[in-house]
Amino acid sequence: MAFEGFDERKQPKRPETLLALVLGDLRRTLPIVRIHSQCTTGDVFHSLRCDCHDQLHLALESIAKYGSGAIVYEHQEGRGIGLAEKLRAYELQDQGMDTIEANLELGHPVDLRDYSLPVEVLRALGLRSIQLLTNNPEKIAAVRAGGIEIVKRLSADVEYNPHSARYLSTKRLKLGHLSSASGDLHNESPHRTRCRSGAH
């Protein structure tokens, strides 16, 4: 299903399209939900710099195995800065900056994303209680602020590679992302993949 909404922060206002991939009866079960930000480099071209591709497929596989759930795919590339600026940030990362330092150097906030529209999509789907597959505390806060109960948080940990190790470490250390590798063992998920030693 496709949804359109407006981000009130952006001027002039332009519609933002979100996709909801739904499996099963969401109202008769406690569905698994993933809010996934578009990542062309990872989702489409399988970039090794990030974990986006693997997290998307973790969500697809987890929902298929469980039999009920939804992925809300939102158009907020590069933490909201867009694909062109994201590629410029890649150049700065090649010079030694991490993802946050690169965004700031380009004059962008650390994270421009807003999750109000994805939460509205969840509400439109009639969801009031869910299992949320995420490591991002901002997504958790947004879902709760939208009046949706998170009965269980499922970890979005995936196996890393040498190219993504610093990216994942930056998310944990600077953005507060939750991870078993950083000691977050609450609500352990059976779908979690252990990170190799060295991710800390």
Class by SSE composition: alpha/beta
At CATH level 3, the topology is Rossmann fold
Poorly predicted residue ranges: 182-200
Order of helices and strands: EEEHHEHHHEHEH
> What overall form do the CA principal axes indicate?
globular
Average pLDDT rating: 85
Terminal Cα separation, in Å?
38 Å
Strand order of the largest sheet: 1-2-4-3-5-6
What would CATH call the class? Alpha Beta
Question: What can you see in these coordinates?
Answer:
- The protein has 7 helices and 6 strands, in the order βββααβαααβαβα.
- The longest helix is centred in the N-terminal third of the chain and has 15 residues, at 52-66.
- The termini are far apart.
- The protein is of the alpha/beta class.
- Helices cover 34% and strands 18% of the residues.
- Mean pLDDT is 85; it is low at 182-200.
- Helix 3 (83-94) crosses helix 4.
Notable traits:
single chain; 200 residues; alpha/beta; Rossmann fold; six-stranded mixed beta sheet; 7 helices; 6 strands; 18% strand; globular
